[in-house]
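Note to self: keep these together.
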Amino acid sequence: MQRISSFKTAWQLLKSSCGGAAKQVNISQAIARSFSHRPPEGPNSFGLLFDIDGVLVRGRTLIPEAKQCFRNLVDRSGKYKVPVVFVTNAGNCMRQTKAEHLSHLLDVEVSPDQVMLSHSPLRMFTQFHKMRVLVSGQGPVEEVAHNLGFQDVVTIDMLREAYPLLDVVDHSRRPKDSIPPTKGLQPIDAVILFGEPIRWETNLQLIIDVLLTNGNPDNNWNSGQYPHIPVLACNMDLLWMAEAKNPRFGHGMFLVCLESLYKKVTGYDLKYEALIGKPSVVTYNYAELLIRQQAEGLGWTAPVKRLYAIGDNPMADIYGANLYNHYLQASRRTKAQMQAKAGGVETVDDAPKMTSAELGGASGAYGAEEDLPEGCSSILVCTGVYSRDQQELPSDPDHTVTEQHIFHGHRDFRFDPTLTQPSFVVQDVKEAVELVFEQEGWPLE
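Structure:
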């Protein structure tokens, strides 16, 4: 798989991908109109990464403390004091739609450039943009795919129409009377999984058909043809929190079904070209680019030193923030080793290496010589998936993991319970922001 060779390359891709004719203005100048606060003493610069479901809302219901906390994040004119990015694993809409919804709920202006959906990093996977891709999910998936840069898009409904005999689980949708002709399509080159679909049986069946026929459902299944065409998946959340008392199935549950079916039929493991969305490192890399972009709009000259990721899901939000923090520390070690080697000193790095899945398909995406943040702290709130009354974090008083916990993360991620241990635990998002301001020595207003 083609890799993004440097931070500068990724930065250029980000700026070009914000695109369209309406984006020919200077992005930093545009953001500066909404961001006006400079950090005290210059170097104390930080950015905030907010999860949405379970932190700011539950389903369509706003968590009351969310609106209160944003009073500390904007000045009296409504302009932001610090860079803010909303990082969600949702992906069934456009960024503009999500920004408008958040603006309405929070009573502050939220720009699309502050919103990061699970599929947003796909803008950087340009090697797939000219391929014919099958997209799965719900909402305006075709529009979303085109907006991300994919030029030749096939939806599940288009596939059903072209091959009317494939989808037969629901008897009411089976062909009546005569057998309709197959229209056929050009072979599919890759599969993009945006999020959980509405009709799981239809999507599971047709995706398996595409994988077992090398992208051409006109052919017979061939389980011996392995590996299959590329699969890129966004949003690995097994569970998420809506208005119900208990968590609901997320796209991660759909992936479990797809993986199990493929393994059952073929005997092989389903392979992913990329796993995107929290907790993969590429998601936080991309979020950091957005934070850096906003810091430039603020007029901050010092690099952003710290990120604070606020979430409700230990396996997605906390695991991802801690994994990214490990990545940042590894990048700093690599930089120090390169400098030592240049000075004739040999060093040994015995830290565990991250898997390709954990990196999200972005191994080597950012050069160690760049000014990445010093660290990323994870803050767990108790208003969503995690509840102090129902769950215990996997640590003893000395912060050493001693218990075996059920792993809700993706199959291709290591089970490292230490990464589910947050830097801080607070009741809600308002307490989280107050904690960050206290940590950074910023005044609360």
